[in-house]
Each structure stands twice: as structure tokens, then as C-alpha cells.
């Protein structure tokens, strides 16, 4: 792997994982890449303190929000390729890790198709950072031997096959699920997950104003509405949630038996 500071290594792309927000969670190599950048193409959720590590770079925001992209993915690919062809070192900075729901694979394909060099620097994924801050172990010898990551904002959510991803001995981590959490809860319970399965919502993890909230699966949608949870947030479903430091947010814990009984009551 060539040194990022090699003056001969011009005209290339470096995909960098910015981690879950806190600049202290960047890798050493990520910081090195930021300091070498001529052009910084960044997502909207990247913390400003991370952007400030590249004061020399020309910044281009390609922020994405639900159902609204400032620049479509094809446009981002073309933008990156165009700048690299001028001989620039282009750092494509993504929240979390580039290869976990970051469209990093698509951008690597586009750069390679153009015959240009590309490197990927991994980052601490949003789920791992959020779970660590909430003291929520995603796996545990006594409670969970498997963990799955899914996107909660995908097309045709109700038609996705999530059977077996959540339940006893398993942990399910859902990215981008705040807007669709009522549908998510309904889908999981329809697939047989118990209504009283613990669930956590980890909002703005590692950033100022972060919250870790805990309730039961049947109360997920109502709790998100009551607490006015905003993206970015991670949803964790599984027995390991009970081990976390998250605040209990079930409106009335006396409802637990009712939720467990469901329609039988």
C-alpha cells in the first residue's frame, strides 16, 4: 500500500470511513488521508470537526436525505472521476464505514471502470459506535451468538425476507429505520418475534445530544413518536438490549403483560 503522502501518488480516490461522528474515533490512516486531500467529497451527516481536519481541501457536499438527494449517485460517481482526472487526490468521506450501507461498492466500481486507482479506508460503523456508547453488546455468550445488519428504508420493506434475523439468541441491527419503525415492528411481530422483545433506539450516537432509549418491540413506533426521535438513529432488536445503559421508555410498564398477551387479552 503506497504512502498517502507520496508526492508521485496523484490522481486517485480514497474512500474514507468517517466513523459514527466523534472525530476521536477516526483511524490514524483516515486522518492521514484527510490531510492529503485536494478535494473532499462528503456526506451531509459527517461532523464538521472531521471536515476541519482537511482545511486545505476544496469541499463538495453531496448530502442525502430520505427521498431527497442533492446529487444523485450517478452524479456523485461522475464528479469523483472528473476531479481525479485532473490529477487531484479525491477523498470521498462517508459516515460510518464505506462498505456498510454507504454505497461505497458502487463508487469503487465506477472509479475502477474509469481505469483510475482507488483505496478504501474502513471506519467504525455507526452501529458499532452507537452500541459501544450505550454499553450494548451486540453479541454475548449467554444471550446472542449471531448479529444481522439490515436497512430499514429499502424499497418494498414488507416484502423483504427478515425471517430468522431476530429472536432468541440473535440480534438485529436496523439502519435508517426511524421513518419506517411502525412497519418494522409490525413486520417482525408478523414473522414471529415476541411483542415483548427488548428494542433500543440509539440516536445521534457519539455526537452531542445523543440518546439511548429502550422499550419493547410492540411499543417501538409509539415510543419513537413520543420521544420525537430524529435521524440519524440505529435500532437494535434482541435480548442483549436488556444489558445496555439505555433509558427505559415504555410509557407504562404495567402494559408489559398486555403486550405479551397481544390479542388474547
TrEMBL record:
Residues 12-220 form the Tetrapyrrole methylase domain. Its EC number is 2.1.1.107. InterPro entries: 4pyrrol_Mease, 4pyrrol_Methylase_sf, 4pyrrole_Mease_sub1, 4pyrrole_Mease_sub2, CobA/CysG_C, Siro_Cobalamin_biosynth, Uropor_MeTrfase_CS. It is an enzyme of class 2 (transferase). One of its GO terms (biological process) is cobalamin biosynthetic process. Pathway: Cofactor biosynthesis; adenosylcobalamin biosynthesis; precorrin-2 from uroporphyrinogen III: step 1/1; Porphyrin-containing compound metabolism; siroheme biosynthesis; precorrin-2 from uroporphyrinogen III: step 1/1. The keyword NAD does not apply. The keyword Cell cycle does not apply. PROSITE patterns: SUMT_1, SUMT_2. Keywords: Cobalamin biosynthesis, Methyltransferase, Porphyrin biosynthesis, S-adenosyl-L-methionine, Transferase. Gene3D superfamilies: Cobalt-precorrin-4 Transmethylase, Domain 1, Methyltransferase, Cobalt-precorrin-4 Transmethylase, Domain 2. Pfam families: TP_methylase (PF00590). GO terms for molecular function: uroporphyrin-III C-methyltransferase activity. Belongs to the precorrin methyltransferase family. This is uroporphyrinogen-III C-methyltransferase. It comes from Sphingomonas suaedae.
Amino acid at each position: 500500500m503506497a504512502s498517502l503522502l507520496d508526492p508521485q501518488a496523484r490522481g486517485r480516490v480514497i474512500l474514507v470511513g468517517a466513523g459514527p461522528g466523534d472525530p476521536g474515533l477516526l483511524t490514524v490512516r483516515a486522518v492521514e488521508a484527510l490531510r492529503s486531500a485536494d478535494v473532499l467529497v462528503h456526506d451531509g451527516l459527517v461532523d464538521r470537526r472531521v471536515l476541519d481536519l482537511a482545511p486545505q481541501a476544496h469541499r463538495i457536499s453531496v448530502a442525502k436525505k430520505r427521498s431527497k438527494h442533492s446529487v444523485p449517485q450517478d452524479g456523485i460517481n461522475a464528479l469523483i472521476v472528473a476531479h481525479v482526472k485532473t490529477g487531484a487526490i479525491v477523498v470521498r468521506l462517508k459516515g460510518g464505514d464505506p462498505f456498510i450501507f454507504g454505497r461505497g461498492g458502487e463508487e469503487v466500481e465506477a472509479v475502477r471502470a474509469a481505469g483510475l486507482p482507488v483505496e478504501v479506508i474502513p471506519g467504525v460503523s455507526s452501529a458499532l459506535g452507537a452500541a459501544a456508547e450505550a454499553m450494548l453488546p451486540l453479541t454475548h455468550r449467554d444471550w446472542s451468538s449471531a448479529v444481522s445488519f439490515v436497512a430499514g428504508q429499502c424499497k418494498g420493506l414488507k416484502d423483504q425476507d427478515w425471517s430468522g434475523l431476530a429472536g432468541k439468541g440473535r440480534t438485529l441491527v436496523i439502519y435508517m429505520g426511524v421513518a419506517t419503525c411502525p412497519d418494522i415492528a409490525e413486520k417482525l411481530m408478523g414473522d414471529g418475534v415476541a411483542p415483548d422483545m427488548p428494542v433500543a433506539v440509539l440516536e445521534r450516537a457519539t455526537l452531542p445530544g445523543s440518546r439511548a432509549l429502550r422499550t419493547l418491540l410492540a411499543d417501538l413506533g409509539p415510543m419513537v413518536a413520543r420521544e420525537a426521535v430524529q435521524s440519524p438513529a440505529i435500532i437494535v432488536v434482541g435480548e442483549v438490549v436488556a444489558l445496555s445503559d439505555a433509558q427505559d421508555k415504555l410509557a407504562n410498564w404495567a402494559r408489559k403483560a398486555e403486550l405479551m398477551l397481544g390479542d388474547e387479552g
